[in-house]
Amino acid sequence: MRRIIIPGRNCWTVEEASDAGVLVDARAYYRELYRAARKARRYIAITGWQFDSDVALLRGDDLGEALGEVRLLPMLDELCRANPELHVYVLAWDFSLLLALEREWMQHLIFNWTTNERVRFRFDASSPLYGAHHQKLVVIDGQVAFTGGMDVCDCRWDDRDHPVGSPLRCDSGRDPHGPYHDVQSVLTGPVVDKLAELFEARWAHSGGGELKLPKVARDDVSFTASLPAPPGPVALSRTFGKTLLPPQEAVQEVRALYLDAIASAERFIYIENQYFSSRAIYQALVKRLREPGRGRLQVMLVLPQQPEALREQLAMGVAQVRLLRSLERVAREHGHDFGVYCSAGRDAVSGADVYTYIHSKVMVVDDRFLTLGSANTTNRSLGLDSELNLSWEAEAPGDAVARAIRRIRVSLMAEHAGLAGVEPVRVLARADGDLVSWLNGLASAGQDRLRRHPMQTVFDQSPLLKSLEPEELIIDPEDSVLDESLFEALHRAEDGLFASGIRLLSRWLVGTGTERPHRAICPTNAEDGRSSG
């Protein structure tokens, strides 16, 4: 059995996890983040693509365990006021002009000037031109870490049932948003040290100065996961685009990880992701499907019914649909099975399907390899943006790691299919040899949540738009596919001008041109010789 995870090639490091779990959907993640933050003693370090200050971490029945504020920033402020040794660091991508109406304005002011002085917030503009900081990471006291696909922001919260309508899916005075699916991980043990090191480097790279996060001796670290993660070592893989100032070489470990995993597949590949537009992943799949002498392969993708915003439909949707159609054709021509699905609930009043938005980033190969994290299956996530994925690999078929990966994969597929109860899930688990046909039958019946993906672009949905669809984007399976320059241009204004302008305005409003004075970057740690920065 060919090994997939190779340090130095497709991962940064392989570290031991004392305990690890998978948190499925934001109710589980936000609840565990709340519990871990309430126990923090020395620091909480958070980095992400987006934050909203007043996102409620506990909702509905979970409010019964509230011990004070449940909204993100008021909770962090409350914790710092109650514990004079606690420091909070929040690092957010310095977003582009096009996203301005989707973001909370004046965050530099809100986070830094309306809270305790030990709550420190920075915008990170160190990404390459047209790139984004997309890693999602929380580290607390060097003891517990969370990473995956989820940010703590508006319009993300949902439960695994994904009801058609829910008053709990409501943020910041908005109308309730639709069903939303994502996956996060929680870890303890030595692997947390490397994740803390990653945050320290990101903070320094952003211009925040040297940061030394102390490791706190604690015996009260615990969590409740949706599913247990595979036991033992876990690999950390990253993406960073090359920058000149500050200097940083490109890192494409996640790209190599995906390509190596696809090449090794013998029975099936399962992917759930927000997008599918990566040239490299498409070509790797085509190569594997065409490879002579290999057995029948089943490829299954779970994607959103369509990209969330019109700009994404225009910039990403055309490439995605054409790649999927091409892969479907190649699989058919070479005797493989290929299925693309989405998930929906039926509105009891209108009878219309209400689709769950898939935001997770998960791939399983042969139930012996699992990766999850922040990286989308897009060109930019594999080469330009900052990304972070975790991976596990079994030593032998059917060992403890393989069994854990299988449980995670079956549980996720059952959620998308809307299968409840032991027996329906058992039937799904037993369908391994003919998964695509079984899923196709389930989707065609239309009685549960699984649907065949329409594989249509925004141009297909309107005769007027169809006439405007560019003809030159037809894909040759052996060549490069649609470049993402349009997507990048739409998502990044040079030097983060809008966010920088808002930051300057907030400084002017409080009558200063510099950041608020602070006592220390982190508390002195006499035991390990680390001092405040």
From TrEMBL:
The keyword Chaperone does not apply. Residues 129-156, 354-381 form the PLD phosphodiesterase domain. CDD domains: PLDc_vPLD1_2_like_bac_1 (cd09140), PLDc_vPLD1_2_like_bac_2 (cd09143). Keywords: Hydrolase, Lipid metabolism, Repeat. Pfam families: PLDc, PLDc_2. SMART domains: PLDc. InterPro entries: PLD-like_dom (IPR025202), PLipase_D/transphosphatidylase (IPR001736), PLipase_D_fam (IPR015679). The keyword GTP-binding does not apply. PROSITE patterns: PLD. It catalyses: a 1,2-diacyl-sn-glycero-3-phosphocholine + H2O = a 1,2-diacyl-sn-glycero-3-phosphate + choline + H(+). PANTHER family: PHOSPHOLIPASE (PTHR18896:SF76), PHOSPHOLIPASE D (PTHR18896). This is Phospholipase. It comes from Pyxidicoccus parkwayensis. The lineage of its organism: Bacteria, Pseudomonadati, Myxococcota, Myxococcia, Myxococcales.
